[in-house]
Amino acid sequence: MSLRDLFNAFDTDGNGTLDRAEFGALLRAFSTDLDEPSVLAIMADVDRDRNGCVDFAEFEAVAAKHIGAELPDLRYLADFRALDADRNGLLSQSEAAELASRLGRAVDPNRLAAADKNGDGNLNYPEFVQLMQ
Ligand SMILES: [Ca+2]
Ligand SMILES: [Ca+2]
Ligand SMILES: [Ca+2]
To answer: Which molecular-function annotations from GO does this UniProt entry contain (predicted)?
Structure first.
């Protein structure tokens, strides 16, 4: 999966740019405890032309800075996005519970609870990857 695939996975409406909600979902999926003011601050930094959306060039520039050449393991990203019903970039317990019915994968509730490292009741993407392995 490339940076472009990552970008597209969070471009929910497929219009080629990430609006605040889409970009916020991407940030939350890869960070822990990111509140709305932090999302806005990062967005203000990334959105170079200040049009309120993050386009791919803007994303690429910032991803190089923050992610570097090393992309995280993205092979479960499509499943993660499919389960994230409210598209906020995190899997709540009820969203994660859909894992069994959607992917035919039984999930031990204890493993689910253990995967939620910071105990906020949500799984971000790295926590989800651990659960799937
Ligand atoms: Ca969009
Ligand atoms: Ca922009
Ligand atoms: Ca969610």
So the answer is: calcium ion binding
35 C-alpha to center of ligand 2: Å?
21
d(CA 107, ligand 1 centre) in Å: 32
Options 1.10.1040.10, 1.10.238.10, 3.40.50.300, 3.20.20.100; CATH for 77-132 is 1.10.238.10
Across the chain, which has 133 residues, the per-10-residue mean pLDDT values are 89 97 92 83 92 95 66 87 95 88 78 84 90 86
Among the bound ligands, name the one nearest to the CA of residue 19.
1
Please list all protein residues whose beta carbon sits less than 5 angstroms from ligand 3, which is an ion: 84, 86, 88, 90
Cβ neighbors of 103 (< 8 A, separation 6 or more) are 79
CA of 94 to the centre of ligand 2 (A): 34
What pLDDT does residue 65 have? 67
| Centre of ligand 1 from the C-alpha of residue 133, in Å | 30
Contact partners, residue 107, CB within 8 Å, separation at least 6? 96, 97, 99, 100, 131
